[in-house]
Amino acid sequence: MKKSPIVIVIILFLVSGIALSQQESGKLRIGTFDSRCIALAYGRSADFMREIDSMKSTLAVAKKDSNKEKIEELEQLGPTKQVLLHQQVFSNGSVINILEKVKDKFPAIAKENNLKMILSKWEIMFVDESIDLIDITDQLVSLFNPDEQTKKIIENIKSMEPVPIEQISINPMD
After folding, report:
1. Which residues contact 99 (CB under 8 A, 6 or more apart)?
2. Mind listing the pLDDT tens digit for each residue in 81-139?
3. How far out from the chain centre does Cα 101 lie?
4. C-alpha span between 75 and 62 (Å, rounded)
5. pTM for the whole thing?
6. Cα separation of 41 and 152, whole Å?
7. CA-closest candidate to residue 147, choices 51, 52, 44, 50
8. Which one, of 103, 80, 95, 92, lies nearest residue 173 by Cα?
9. Is CB count within 10 Å lower at the N or C end of the chain?
10. Cα–Cα distance, 113 to 90 (Å, whole number)
11. Which whole-number Å values give the CA distances from 77 to 54, 62, 146, in the listed order?
């Protein structure tokens, strides 16, 4: 028996509709990342080094110009950045200031991994069986072009628990 093209189209339409409804009824996929790894990758990146060099250059100019206000600002900013980076790398401090630099890449990563949301794994207090957590740490780390040494350190960090943030000193000299 020969089927007409209309019947074939209807069958294909029904099959694709069933497949689509099954896909939609699946678990909600949420991308997670280890914020410590992101912070380390950024802290050892060329972008971060340029940022620090720029601060040092600006400080040198401020000192040459005797711009006391700018000198005070930069002399406080450097240690503040160091404390923040310590909280981010060794504990679970927020890395939103770092991720802002690559946020334009998130839609593509979300699409590639079929994700509805991306968040730090340290911010998840509860997950039920309707959620699939997908670790995208390595994809996010790669946005900062880590060298091999940085990748090795990141692998070590992944196997350690974060230091409680209360134990991270706010004194940059510690």
Report:
1. 38, 140
2. 999 999 999 999 999 999 999 999 999 999 999 999 999 999 999 999 999 999 999 99
3. 10
4. 11
5. 0.79
6. 11
7. 44
8. 80
9. N
10. 28
11. 12, 14, 25
Annotate 57-111 with DSSP letters as a single string: HHHHHHHHTT-HHHHHHHHHHHHHHHHHHHHHHHS----HHHHGGGGGGHHHHHH
Cβ(144)–Cβ(58) below 8 Å: no
C-alpha torsion angle, residues 57, 60, 65, 68 (rounded to 10): 110
Here the tokens at position 43 are: 């802290």
- Tokens at residue 134, please? 């997908």
Question: In the numeric block, which tokens belong to residue 4?
Answer: 């007409």
Closest CA to 39 of 113, 122, 114: 122
Residue with tokens 């000193």: 169
170 — pLDDT class (breaks 50, 70, 90): confident
Q: What is the spatial distance between Cα 84 and Cα 170, in angstroms, rounded to a whole number?
A: 8
Collapsing DSSP to helix, strand or coil, 119 comes out as strand
Structure tokens that stand for 170 in this block: 């706010």
